[in-house]
Amino acid sequence: MPMPTPVGTDDLQRYPIGRFQRRPSYIAAERAAFIERLAAHPVQLAAVLDGLTEAALDDAYRPGGWTVRQLVHHLADSHANAYMRIKLALTEDEPTIKPYNHEAWVRTPDVTVPVASSVTLVALVHERLVALLRLVGDAEAARALIHPENGRMTVDQVIAMYAWHGDHHVAHIRTWRAMR
Q: Is residue 153 part of a domain?
């Protein structure tokens, strides 16, 4: 399992589990562990949000960061994109995917809807994503996509990145709650 890079205390709120480090390849057992982390994200997200008031959801989870509400909606947007990106990589020859502006997306008018909609979306996307990924073998995991900013990425690398991404943002909310 890849280890996140250590961070200084000043960076702890920004990267509570460390920065993601993409490796050139992963073995099947690592892939299985990443998939189980993805499977756990919906429950972890719901649990870390349990009991928060609407007012609390509008607090920034770290100085200069998004609100908790924006963060939850970002997770739904991001992981929906992950599902589509992986499907593209599995069905096309090294497709070039379209990046999107995360900062602009967290400011669209739909981020005012209750976070329950994004918690549900994460759960449904992960249900499909995890079901798909549990059937991916080594050959499919080696397929790739082209990210205009991150370069060529294998399905395994995308799985690892999104396992980290979900853990990273759940940890943001946990850290914020512990500091409140």
A: yes
In a domain, 21, yes or no: no
Average pLDDT over residues 41-55: 97
- Residue 67 φ/ψ, nearest 5 degrees: -75, 165
Give how far Cα 15 sits from Cα of 6, 8, 12, 36, 64, Å: 9, 9, 5, 21, 13
Exposure b/e, 23-40, CB count within 10 A at least 16 = b: eeebeeebbebbbebbbb
**Quick one: pLDDT band at residue 12, thresholds 50, 70, 90?**
confident
| Domains: count for the chain | 1
Tell me if 18 is assigned to some domain.
no
Distances (CA, A) of 89 to 1, 74, 84, 132, 151: 23, 22, 9, 13, 13
User: Residue 126 contacts by C-beta under 8 Å, 6 or more apart in sequence?
Assistant: 38, 39, 41, 42, 79
Question: Which range of residues forms the domain containing residue 64?
Answer: 39-179
Q: Is residue 26 within 8 Å of 42, Cβ to Cβ?
A: no
pLDDT digits (tens, 9 = 90+) for 114-170: 999 999 999 999 999 999 999 999 999 999 999 999 999 999 999 999 999 999 999
pTM here is: 0.93
